[in-house]
Input
Amino acid sequence: MSLKKTDTEIYKAIQNEIDRQHKNLEMIASENYTSPEVLEAMGSPLTDKYAEGYPGRRYYGGCENVDIVENIAIERAKEIFKCEHVNVQPHSGSQANIASYLALLDIGDKIMGMDLSCGGHLTHGHPLNFSGKYFDIVPYGVDKKSHRIDYEKVREIALKERPDLIVCGASAYPREIDFKKFKEIADECDAYLMADIAHIAGLVAKGLHPDPVPYCDVVTTTTHKTLRGPRGGMIMCKKEYASAIDRSVFPGNQGGPLMHVIAAKAVCFKEVLSEDFKDYAKQVIANCRALAGELKNRGIKLISGGTDNHLVLVDLRPLEITGKKAEAALQAAGIVVNKNSIPYDPAKPLVTSGIRIGTPVLTTRGFKEEGIKTVAGLIARVIKDPSEEIISDVNGKVRELCKKYPHNKGRE
Ligand SMILES: *Cc1c(COP(=O)(O)O)cnc(C)c1O
Output
């Protein structure tokens, strides 16, 4: 039996999503397209297995196969990131962050994290998130002019506020993060240091972004962004926190691990260990530079003036279009991005004055600098003049590009 016969509603929605992925240029910076092998592992009967606990120490029988899977995932992650301890069970990046905070801190302790409007993540202290509800949050931002982290300012706030933990890492920061400087600051105020590399993990894995592992007590990540694996999370830490982290994930915050997803994480890690992945990660960055350069050539303003990583943040204010409108116009043209607050944004979070654009997916589809420059030109045309004629003309060009760079890795 197949879904096509037993559940046509869901079957159709899935087919339509595959079709949408084929026919649009996906430039949401936090997304990627996984390999057929990652999908195969995720769609396996490992989803059926209860495996609470850890390899060799489970609360259920019959775990001999999933133990092999989890041990391989752990070994491969250690090989990639050269870290002392790894927990591959967090269901998501947010779960990894909850578990890490609760392993090191008590409720009510003080966390210093990057402000959401400056590029931080919800789990770094937003008032509506568990982090903001259960911890005392002190935010740091970016410099108003350079849009970069001002480490002297961070140090000043840290020495005044004396947080118990400093979290560094971001969801919309186009520049390198200096983890060594954060470590010096954390040491000065006697705080734990946690890096959340959800976005940049694939670049860190290949030495294309400074490495947080030597400097941080704990490093969390997702596995589905630049790392190009299944939707999920992971925690890396120094040996001394290994048992606290493991206990905080299970039984602290989760029940049974998603063994099919852990298998897919292992498959992803093997891909990341290959030379091909280094070429991929390098191309992601080269493509993003080309994107930034071409947008600037066309007079478009970028937050921080450019990029060091896989994303750019466009300041739309000079064009007098909101993030919300730009996102909708680009979507109508077949280019998918997300509206995003820019530092000290005067507009509301559901409107915003920016869009965030990333290159991980198009690089997976085989785009190189030339193709990306063409896309940058299309983006510029739409956000400068989101009229029906322009949108329809650009959409025609997007369709051609999608045919030229097919996304058909065994997914039909
Ligand atoms: C995406 C992201 C997360 C959360 O990941 P989810 O899997 O969506 O929970 C956490 N931190 C940062 C910095 C992120 O960008």
Summary: The chain has a mean pLDDT of 96.
